[in-house]
Design goal:
The structure is a homodimer. The first copy, chain A, is α/β, with parallel strands linked by helices. Chain A is built from nine helices and ten strands. Chain A is globular and about 60 Å long. The structure holds a DNA duplex.
DNA sequence: TAGATTGTTAATCGATTAACAATC
DNA sequence: TAGATTGTTAATCGATTAACAATC
């Protein structure tokens, strides 16, 4: 595959979602001074199977060497390239409440190629305050900060304001939105929305936890009289 | 399907992940005073197809009425039941930095059936402070607060401490962990971990954004001389 | 060359979707 | 009854997995 095929060949969504994990693992390996890594070892570090990893990488092109493995630095560069991380992306955060405040100060973004360049809110009490080194601006200032198509918007406003603020982001030229409000946003075609729903995550955990509890309470096997000794497992589940 | 089949019939993971969305939409409809909703209308509210919704609900049992739709209150109760939300779940948050602080104060958990019952940290400067009405305790106090198997642990510590703290959570009896640290946690069988990786979400958005940019820059169709007028679309992508 | 490990093939699995018979 | 809408079937699609030929 050609070097300049970045961005022109289809990569399955499931693969895209794993690329950041591979990238991070490679960073760790590079810092540890490793030159080369096998698909087996890298997959193990990320918690997936090696076949899946090789298949994922095959969608980006083939950067490994049979019998040897992958060059850590080279593979890191290739994946970073595909993720568009050769230059940092600008991020604006809208809604500087509890969560927005935390996101503004979150070091993890900077480490992974993002730069928070604007904080916005319309609650009169926060506007003007300095948070994580940036002065919080009113929403009306969005167009002054957003570079159309090149800025990611993070939405950390209450559910009832999310759609309205999203519309303003889109109007200002934002084409990628990370939404923390538990609502379905309607956006025009060409705008990409991802949703992080913190309460949902807990609910999914609760679903499985309850399942364990219910199953654990019920007998694992029917109690039949038996001549051979039987190990009864109670409450032990996957 | 029987009432008491809750927790005993297999529900596909993809379906489980959507149940919280359905539940929330039903809450909104119930508040709006709606008695009944069709799969078409509910699906529209959640942003999925109606066939998918009906298929999802069919895994829980069949609570609809042909020709009529679903009883809003009844369906809400059924889904809440399956999600184990008839009684609230207790949640402990470990790592009261930027993010943990925000999570402790996040109202969305309480609204959706969770109760934050403990905040923990080992950084000497936070321990003892009161955050969102709770005093931050040292990790050593975990066993005093955790009810084995019935408490969800939220991990908001730096990556390098995540595994160690996770081990302590598990030792205290936590069987469900929501992990915000960008690391792969190793846990014994029977412990359920979900990961929320904020930077990853941005990276996935960046991948698609870059793709739009690259494709937009390239000509959409080969430029051939043509007798008929041609509409050239530049930069317009899905 | 012999051993190791990739990249790819083919089989399997799970999720989505459209269509429609069942039925209120 | 006629119209509406569910629950289910069958077809399709996409993702995972194991196995192995290619090749360093």
């Amino acid at each position: 595959m050609d070097e300049d095929d970045v961005g022109t060949v289809d990569v399955p969504e499931a693969t895209v979602a794993r690329l950041p994990q591979y990238l991070r693992a490679l960073s760790v390996l590079a810092e540890a001074g490793l030159q080369t890594v096998s698909s087996e070892a890298l997959a193990e570090a990320v918690g997936v199977g090696s076949a899946k990893l090789r298949k994922d990488l095959s969608h980006l092109g083939s950067y490994g060497t049979r019998g040897v493995g992958y060059d850590v630095t080279e593979l890191h560069r290739q994946i970073a390239d595909h993720l568009g991380q050769t230059t940092p992306w600008n991020v604006v955060i809208v809604g500087i409440g509890n969560l927005g405040h935390a996101l503004a100060g979150y070091g993890g973004f900077g480490d992974r190629g993002f730069r928070v360049v604007g904080l916005f809110d319309d609650g009169s009490q926060v506007v003007g305050e300095v948070v994580a080194g940036l002065r919080v601006r009113p929403l009306a200032d969005l167009p002054q900060v957003v570079h159309p198509g090149a800025t990611i918007g993070v939405l950390a406003v209450p559910a009832e304001h999310a759609q309205g603020v999203c519309d303003q982001l889109v109007a200002a030229g934002v084409r990628s939105v990370l939404n923390f409000a538990p609502v379905v946003l309607r956006v025009p075609a060409g705008v990409d929305v991802r949703k992080v729903d913190l309460a949902s995550e807990l609910q999914i955990l609760a679903f499985h936890a309850q399942r364990r509890a219910v199953r654990g309470a019920a007998p694992v096997a029917p109690r039949l009289p038996s001549l051979a000794p039987v190990t009864e497992r109670v409450g032990e589940v996957v």
